C-alpha cells in the first residue's frame, strides 16, 4: 500500500535522544542537520523529493536505491555511503524469511532511507526518537537500526529452532507423512534467511575497516557486536538446515520401519491362512468321493482340524521367533 505522501517520517535530531518532526519538503530543506528522512519508494513523488534534498546522489546510486530486489551491500562514494540491508518481513500475510530491503544514503549530517515494504526495525528506532530515548547522532541511528534488525533476525531463528524441536518430538512420538512438508518448510526458511544474512555480514564488515566519518568508536563497537551476532546467526542457520535434514532422515526411517512392520505382519497372516485356504478350497470341490459328505459331524471335525492347524502354526512361528 502506498502512503499518501512520499515521506514516511522525518526526524531532526536534537542530540539528546529526541527529534523534531519534519512533515514537508520545506521543513527538511530548512532544518539544521543532522536529520533522518525515511521515504516510501512506491510513491511517485519520492524520487523528486530525494533529488531536492540530496542533490549529490548520482543517477547510478539513485537507481540502486530504487532497485526492487536489492541485495545487501555497502558502496563508498565521494559524497557519502550507499548501504542496503535486509530485515525480517513482519508485514501481515507475508513470510518472515521473505526479507525486505532497506536502502540508506548516509553522509556525516544526513540519512536518507528508502523502503518498498514497511520495516519494523526502522519503525522501532524512529519511535525511540519520538520517546526521547533514541539515537543522538547519524552513526547512532545506523548502529541502532543494524542492531534492531539483527535482534529480529535472531528471534526468527529462535522460532525456527522451536519449530524444529516440536517437529522432532512428533517424529519420535507419532511419525506421519505430513511431517515431511513441515520439515521441508523449516529447511527452506533457513536457506532463504541465510541467502541474505551471509552477504549482509560482508557489507557490515566493510564499514568496520573503512574510515567512515559518521561512525564513532562506540558505533564501530556496536557494529562489531552486530557482526558477531550475524556470524552466530549464520552458524545457527547452518545447524538448523543440517538438523532438519537429520530429522527428515529419521522420519523416513520411522515411516519405513512402520511400513516394514505392517508388511511383516501381513506376511505372517498370509502364511497362517495359506494352508487354510488350500484345505477349504480342496474340500469345496463338488465331485464324488469327498470324505465326510454323508457324515453329519464332518463340518465340526473339519473346523476343529483347521483350528488345530492354526494353533500349531502359531506355536511354530513363536518357536522360530517370527513374531
Question: What's a concise summary of this model?
Answer:
By secondary structure, the protein is of the alpha+beta class. The chain has eight helices and seven strands.
What would the keywords be for this entry?
Beta Polymerase, domain 2, 8 helices, 2 domains, alpha+beta, seven-stranded mixed beta sheet, 323 residues, 7 strands
Topology:
Layout: E1 7-13, E2 19-21, H1 25-30, E3 35-40, H2 46-53, H3 59-65, E4 73-76, E5 81-87, E6 100-106, E7 110-115, H4 120-130, H5 138-173, H6 178-208, H7 217-283, H8 298-319
Parallel strand pairs: 3-7
Antiparallel strand pairs: 1-2, 1-3, 4-5, 5-6, 6-7
Outline the structure in words.
- The chain has 2 domains: 247 residues, Beta Polymerase, domain 2, CATH 3.30.460.20; 54 residues, no CATH class.
- Helix 5 packs antiparallel against helix 6.
- A 7-stranded mixed β-sheet has the order 2-1-3-7-6-5-4, with helices on one face.
- By secondary structure, the chain is α+β, with helices and mostly antiparallel strands.
- Strand 4 and strand 5 form a beta hairpin.
- 31% of the residues are buried.
Amino acid at each position: 500500500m502506498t502512503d499518501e505522501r512520499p515521506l514516511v517520517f522525518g526526524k531532526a535530531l536534537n542530540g539528546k535522544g529526541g527529534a523534531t518532526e519534519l512533515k514537508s519538503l520545506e521543513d527538511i530543506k530548512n532544518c539544521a542537520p543532522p536529520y533522518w528522512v525515511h521515504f516510501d519508494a512506491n510513491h511517485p513523488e519520492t524520487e523528486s523529493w530525494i533529488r531536492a534534498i540530496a542533490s549529490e546522489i548520482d543517477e547510478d546510486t539513485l537507481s540502486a536505491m530504487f532497485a526492487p530486489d536489492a541485495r545487501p551491500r555497502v558502496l563508498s562514494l565521494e559524497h557519502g555511503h550507499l548501504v542496503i540491508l535486509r530485515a525480517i518481513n513482519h508485514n501481515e500475510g507475508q513470510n518472515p524469511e521473505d526479507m525486505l530491503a532497506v536502502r540508506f544514503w548516509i553522509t556525516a549530517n544526513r540519512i536518507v532511507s528508502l523502503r518498498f515494504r514497511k520495516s519494523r526495525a526502522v519503525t522501532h528506532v524512529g519511535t525511540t526518537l519520538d520517546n526521547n530515548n533514541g539515537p543522538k547522532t547519524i552513526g547512532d541511528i545506523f548502529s541502532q537500526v543494524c542492531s534492531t534488525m539483527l535482534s529480529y533476525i535472531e528471534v526468527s531463528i529462535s522460532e525456527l529452532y522451536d519449530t524444529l524441536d516440536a517437529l522432532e518430538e512428533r517424529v519420535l512420538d507419532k511419525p506421519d507423512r505430513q511431517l515431511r512438508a513441515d520439515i521441508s518448510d523449516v529447511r527452506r526458511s533457513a536457506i532463504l534467511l541465510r541467502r541474505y544474512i551471509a552477504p549482509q555480514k560482508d557489507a557490515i564488515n566493510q564499514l568496520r575497516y573503512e574510515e567512515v566519518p559518521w561512525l564513532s568508536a562506540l558505533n564501530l563497537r556496536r557494529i562489531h557486536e552486530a557482526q558477531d551476532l550475524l556470524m552466530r546467526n549464520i552458524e545457527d542457520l547452518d545447524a538448523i538446515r543440517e538438523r532438519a535434514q537429520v530429522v527428515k532422515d529419521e522420519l523416513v526411517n520411522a515411516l519405513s520401519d512402520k511400513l516394514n512392520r505392517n508388511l511383516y505382519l501381513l506376511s505372517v497372516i498370509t502364511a497362517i491362512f495359506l494352508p487354510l485356504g488350500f484345505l477349504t478350497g480342496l474340500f469345496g470341490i463338488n465331485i464324488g468321493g469327498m470324505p465326510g459328505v454323508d457324515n453329519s459331524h464332518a463340518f465340526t471335525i473339519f473346523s476343529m482340524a483347521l483350528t488345530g492347524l492354526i494353533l500349531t502354526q502359531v506355536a511354530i512361528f513363536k518357536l522360530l521367533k517370527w513374531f
